[in-house]
């Protein structure tokens, strides 16, 4: 297959393409901008993940201009659809001729974009998906670890399933329960990974003395969770967990209340990361819990602007009149990385130079230190993954309305302060 990379290396067309990019390359046409592609789910059921995109990108472009970096960001919407994500990634590479691809938010977006970039020889950095569904989900044979291979062009930073399991069980241990857990795992990249019998929740929960009631995979955008609710009631479940898209958890939680199912703890990934998703539940969102990947309490600051986590969150609220949301930090960090990498290379049209710069990264970002150095990772993932810190928190209803996300457990990342202890759902 003739990829964009092989075309550049073997044809005169490479010189024509190089002439469209000028950052940090005096021999090229000066003043032209290096193109960065960015893909996220701006519409569809995952759109909450992209709520802060415009705010972050506008800030990045302003900071880049102030720093004298000539960059252009070409944004594409995956529409929360993996096929669409792959198609727009191809457009960015072939039509827009981007030199670096950035992608965020759930395996349904990150995986197809990263796979296209790997095939086309275009450097890609992704985030906001646990590393196992990202890395394993792109392997030719996900069931055969011996066949797994590292990637040449795709890199990822986020936490892993081992981290979210530790955070959840640490939170649960703060309360008295019968240790019976109900699993809500959809038939998608996240759900299949979280519910996997080898790398997901089941084996770890068993080791820690929890019993899991897993009714099986369901389809996203389901309108009836009676089967799951009945299974949890029959199994005397007092804890529920899973990884749901926001509309599905709203449907499940409302039906659970209607059918008299009232667990003591509900720790749900993805769906209740966002203030608007919890607000949609009215008073029924009080003391729901989730992993916390980024918050204003995180003791980190931007390498690009110098803003602290608190300042970045406050700036978002001032600009949009909306509450802060967790993806702000990670999307901002993507662009911190882009700026840092482009500053360290001479030729932004060279995929090899960009990949080498990615691998050599040592950057303190607003989500914590980023370095692809293999720390706390199995050997097969050491080249392509950088882990970031993770804590747990609960949504608490405020007296005047709305919710605060209170960090209730930091045993996995003591540098991030807590703001309270776990409370049972009333």
Shape descriptor reads: globular
- Which architecture of the largest domain would the CATH scheme give at its second level? 3-Layer(aba) Sandwich
Enter the CATH topology name of the largest domain. Answer: Rossmann fold
User: Element order, helices and strands?
Assistant: HHEHEHEHEHEHEHHEHEHEHEHHHEEEEE
How many structural domains can be distinguished in the coordinates?
A: 2
Classified in CATH, the superfamily of the largest domain is: Response regulator
Strand order of the largest sheet: 2-1-3-4-5-13
Structural class determined from secondary elements:
alpha/beta
Structural notes for this entry:
The chain is of the alpha/beta class. The protein folds into two domains: 246 residues, Rossmann fold; 150 residues, Rossmann fold, CATH 3.40.50.2300. The protein is built from 15 helices and 15 strands. The strands form four sheets. A six-stranded parallel β-sheet has the order 2-1-3-4-5-13. A four-stranded parallel β-sheet has the order 7-6-8-9. The N terminus is likely disordered.
Topology:
Elements: H1 4-10, H2 13-18, E1 34-40, H3 53-66, E2 71-77, H4 82-94, E3 100-104, H5 107-120, E4 124-127, H6 131-135, E5 154-157, H7 161-172, E6 180-184, H8 189-194, H9 201-207, E7 211-213, H10 226-234, E8 239-244, H11 246-258, E9 265-270, H12 275-279, E10 289-292, H13 309-320, H14 327-343, H15 351-359, E11 363-365, E12 368-370, E13 385-386, E14 391-397, E15 403-409
Parallel strand pairs: 1-2, 1-3, 3-4, 4-5, 5-13, 6-7, 6-8, 8-9
Antiparallel strand pairs: 10-14, 11-12, 14-15
């Amino acid at each position: 297959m003739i990829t964009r990379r092989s075309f550049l290396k073997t044809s005169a067309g490479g010189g024509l393409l190089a002439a469209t990019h000028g950052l940090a390359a005096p021999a090229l046409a000066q003043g032209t901008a290096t193109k960065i592609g960015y893909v996220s789910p701006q519409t569809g059921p995952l759109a909450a993940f992209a709520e802060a995109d415009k705010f972050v990108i506008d800030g990045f472009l302003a900071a880049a201009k102030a720093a004298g970096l000539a960059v252009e960001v070409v944004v594409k919407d995956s529409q929360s659809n993996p096929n669409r994500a792959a198609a727009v990634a191809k457009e960015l590479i072939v039509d827009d001729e981007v030199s670096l691809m950035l992608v965020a938010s759930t395996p349904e977006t990150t995986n197809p974009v990263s796979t296209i970039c790997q095939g086309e020889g275009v450097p890609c950095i992704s985030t906001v998906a646990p590393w196992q569904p990202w890395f394993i989900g792109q392997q030719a044979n996900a069931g055969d670890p011996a066949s797994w291979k590292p990637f040449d062009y795709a890199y990822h930073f986020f936490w892993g399933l081992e981290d979210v399991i530790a955070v959840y069980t640490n939170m649960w241990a703060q309360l008295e329960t019968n240790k019976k857990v109900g699993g809500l795992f959809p038939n998608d990249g996240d759900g299949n990974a979280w519910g996997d019998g080898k790398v997901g929740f089941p084996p770890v929960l068993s080791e820690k003395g929890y019993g899991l009631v897993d009714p099986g995979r369901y389809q996203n955008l389901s309108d009836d969770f009676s089967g799951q609710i009945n299974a949890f009631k029959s199994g005397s479940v007092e804890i529920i967990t899973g990884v749901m898209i926001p509309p599905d958890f709203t449907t499940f939680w409302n039906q659970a209340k209607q059918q008299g199912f009232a667990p003591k703890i509900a720790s749900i990934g993805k769906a209740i990361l966002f203030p608007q998703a919890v607000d949609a539940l009215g008073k029924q969102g009080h003391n729901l819990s989730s992993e916390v990947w980024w918050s204003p309490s995180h003791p980190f600051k931007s390498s690009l602007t110098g803003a602290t986590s608190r300042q970045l969150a406050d700036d978002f609220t001032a600009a949009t009149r909306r509450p802060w949301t967790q993806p702000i930090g990670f999307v901002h960090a993507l662009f911190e990385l882009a700026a840092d990498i482009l500053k360290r290379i001479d030729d932004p049209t060279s995929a090899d130079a960009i990949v080498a710069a990615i691998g050599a990264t040592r950057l303190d970002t607003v989500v914590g230190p980023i370095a692809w150095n293999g720390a706390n990772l199995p050997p097969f993932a050491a080249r392509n993954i950088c882990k970031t810190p993770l804590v747990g928190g609960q949504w608490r209803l405020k007296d005047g309305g709305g919710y605060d996300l209170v960090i209730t457990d930091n045993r996995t990342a003591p540098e991030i302060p807590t703001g309270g202890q776990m409370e049972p759902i009333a």
